[in-house]
Amino acid sequence: MVDVLSQNEIDALLAALSSGEMDAEELKKEETQKKIRSYDFKRAVRFSKDHIRSLTRIHENFARFLTTYFSAQLRTFVQINVVQVEQLPYDEFIRSIPKMTILNIFEAEPLQGRMVLEVHPNVGYAMLDRLLGGTGSAPTKIASMTEIETTIMERIFSRAFESLQEAWKTVLDISPRLEALETNPQFMQIVSPNETIALISLSTKIGDTTGMINLCIPHVVLEPIMSRLSTHQWFVSEKKTRAPEEYEALKSRVNKAKLPIVAELGESRISIAEFLGLSVGDVITLNKPVEEGLSIKVGDRLKYIGSPGTIKDRVAVQIDQIVTEGVEEFDE
Fold first, then answer.
1. Alpha-carbon distance 213 to 222, whole Å?
2. Phi and psi of 179, rounded to 5°?
3. pLDDT tens digits along 214-253
4. Confidence (pTM)
5. Cys bridge to 113: 59, 122, 170, 221, which one at CB 3.0-4.6 A?
């Protein structure tokens, strides 16, 4: 963005030039000099702004799905929002989280590598308290979890990954699977310390308890699908082709569908008084001669012309002709 000077700043600049406090030649030299920007190789930029925007969109959907899931599970007010999406070295992420926290280490095939969903202890213990019948308050002192508490947390977060799968469907069909649950960041080394990661920070509020949920995705995991994270992929819709097995499954389901078939002898219009006066032996004249075929409809569409008859003392209809009414052409 180009900086625009206000009128007061312009007046002050002109006054400084007039009084000799600033030299116009020095200003020109500064403009011609090359601007040097420092680059930290430990904080390598692997994700472009376009990638960051795409990750933000994906995980905004993830936050909405997660809000719905936790609200249903905990039966209390839950609010989850994306605070920021940034890239930083993995070592910096490890140093920024508490020494005692909840680390859900998971994989998401077909992506190769491990990722981490870090849950602040305040949020994790508020969920645990709520699931065990409490009000959803976090303890003042965080202690190590028991085996029962660990099992409960594994169950609730294993199902939470379904929300991540749903949010990523627009980019890639992934199958997240919880691999392990840790509480000490020092025992978790999923990539090298200098590896760049995408860190998605979600602010979380459960009742009166607030905290953060951080999703750590290493660059090496997303590298094979980086092209799909461009804005172009979000706006260009590709024509999808059905796999043969999908087509056969759809065909099988359609073949099992039930539709009503009606053979019409004909139609007639009578008044309500005539209808109420009908008795056994009365004859109703139809609008079709006897020699004309019957209209056989499938659903509400005319599909066949047939002839009435009997088979083994039962009323039957023989199909004599197939008509094209009701046939619709669909593009493949």
1. 20
2. -100, -40
3. 999 999 999 888 888 876 555 544 445 566 778 788 888 8
4. 0.57
5. 221
